[in-house]
Amino acid sequence: MIRIFGDANAYLDFYRRLNLRKVLPGLRDYGPFIFISRQIVDEFERNKLAVADAFLKEQLSKVVPAAIPELLTLAAPNPTIERAAKLQQEIGKLKRKEIIRSYTETLKAISESRDPVSRECRPLFNKAELVTQVQLSHARLRKEMGNRPGCYNDPLGDQVSWEQFLHVLSRGEEAWIVSRDTDFILRMPDGIPVLHPPLHSEIKQRTGLDPKVFVNFDDLGKAFKKAKPKQSAHVPNAKEFAKIQEEELRAAAPPPVISPAETATSQALATIAAASGMTPQQVRTLYTGVRLIPPSMYGREEFIPTLLPPPKK
């Protein structure tokens, strides 16, 4: 029997996902194995709107409509390009208007718990367990003694959920922990998470087995797919998870830094190409000599175009 414990951030992280449609349904398969406390549900509900708002703001700030440089129309007047530039501006305005509308409606849905994450979590949260007086007293003692999880200066929270989880564990059960909170785990140099020693010991004393630790439900899903292949119809396979993570890493990567020299090169090539009827690549190949300047603040050599044929070899 597997017992899954995920802290509140493990569920809040679904609001920080780009490929939500592919990973969220996995909760249906994990559900029968998940332990959930009322404390975790309350923390999730308190924070979900702010988490979603912060993530959406960050992502939407990257949505910048591409612009047609005026240099193309000033250096070589072209009615077609001028019309395209005006159309591009109108598309940009429309995109911004529709994005703001969807953004507002999404936050309203989250506020009213009508959003996909809230709906998918509801069956789990409906079975949340209330804390008993014995568990609460143990949690208070844990806090007063300064034992993990939780911080001494914070209100009772993680201590309560952890005590509840320990009380439901039985001999021979596998404890699977989902958390990236440093109160629970430490990530080793190779990225593998491990529980802090006291927490690891507490679980092993209860179950007789070493716990498995994951930083998110994606990593848990890969292990779950192997352990429960017949009960994981909604869980992506390893290749699908790899593709999802690759897409999200690519989307999260900062945009490339375009140096002034690179910008000047592109503008010069575009100007010559527009005037000559050739592509920028043809201009670069046939007419542009290239000279190097020393590495700049960008940490690499820059290419500066000159209106000369390439030097003979």
Number of domains: 2
What is the residue-mean pLDDT, rounded to a whole number?
A: 82
Give the neighbour order of strands across the main sheet. 2-1-3-6
First and last CA, distance: 72 Å
* Count of separate DSSP helical elements: 14
Q: Total strand count, please?
A: 8
User: What share of the residues does DSSP label as strand, in percent?
Assistant: 5-15%
Structural class computed from helices and strand pairing: alpha/beta
Low-confidence stretches: 257-261, 287-311
Radius of gyration: 28 Å
* Biggest beta sheet attributes: 4 strands, parallel
- Helix percent band: 40-55%
Overview in brief:
By secondary structure, the protein is of the alpha/beta class.
